[in-house]
């Protein structure tokens, strides 16, 4: 994406007044919202975040007309679903084998996951469900990265949008990786 386009994100960015908030300011944004903690919540039009229980409930996914699943906890030692788990549905699957540890570098997955989500939403009926084990850290981090990359939101704007509908809590390492992405995308 051309750098100039990301500066269309907000008036603060265009005016050169935007600065990536500190981790403590971002935590405050997340903690002051009244989001929910259901197994599955719509956090942005046609984007859902949830937990492993919703991921394994194919009937619920079908009732919500989910067309794509992004598993941010893919793998044998995480939430072991995959394309074969959804083979009896029309769901398209993408897995990211990530661990919810501050030392885990999730940033190499930001663009591939964001592009998977963008592709899912390119269809007028596409709906994407992003999950990890609890639906708090890994999944929310990838949704926030999508909103920053493809919806041209600042990190603060993305957190406000998502946390209005769901309680989220990216771990400290993921939050720092998102702060770095925010700095890169917002022209400074």
TrEMBL record:
Gene3D superfamilies: Protein tyrosine phosphatase superfamily. It is found in: Cytoplasm; Nucleus. Keywords: Cytoplasm, Hydrolase, Nucleus, Protein phosphatase. InterPro entries: Atypical_DUSP_subfamA, Dual-sp_phosphatase_cat-dom, Prot-tyrosine_phosphatase-like, Tyr_Pase_AS, Tyr_Pase_dom, TYR_PHOSPHATASE_DUAL_dom. Transmembrane segments: none annotated. The keyword Hydrolase applies. PROSITE patterns: TYR_PHOSPHATASE_1, TYR_PHOSPHATASE_2, TYR_PHOSPHATASE_DUAL. It catalyses: O-phospho-L-threonyl-[protein] + H2O = L-threonyl-[protein] + phosphate; O-phospho-L-tyrosyl-[protein] + H2O = L-tyrosyl-[protein] + phosphate; O-phospho-L-seryl-[protein] + H2O = L-seryl-[protein] + phosphate. It is an enzyme of class 3 (hydrolase). It comes from the Eukaryota. Residues 38-187 form the Tyrosine-protein phosphatase domain. The active site is at residue 132. GO terms for biological process: negative regulation of MAPK cascade. Its EC number is 3.1.3.16, 3.1.3.48. Residues 114-166 form the Tyrosine specific protein phosphatases domain. One of its GO terms (molecular function) is protein serine/threonine phosphatase activity. Its main location: cytoplasm. It holds the Pfam family DSPc. PANTHER family: AGAP008228-PA, DUAL SPECIFICITY PROTEIN PHOSPHATASE. Belongs to the protein-tyrosine phosphatase family. Non-receptor class dual specificity subfamily. Dual specificity phosphatase able to dephosphorylate phosphotyrosine, phosphoserine and phosphothreonine residues, with a preference for phosphotyrosine as a substrate. Dual specificity phosphatase able to dephosphorylate phosphotyrosine, phosphoserine and phosphothreonine residues within the same substrate, with a preference for phosphotyrosine as a substrate. Involved in the modulation of AMPK and MAPK1/2 signaling pathways. This is Dual specificity protein phosphatase. It comes from Austrofundulus limnaeus.
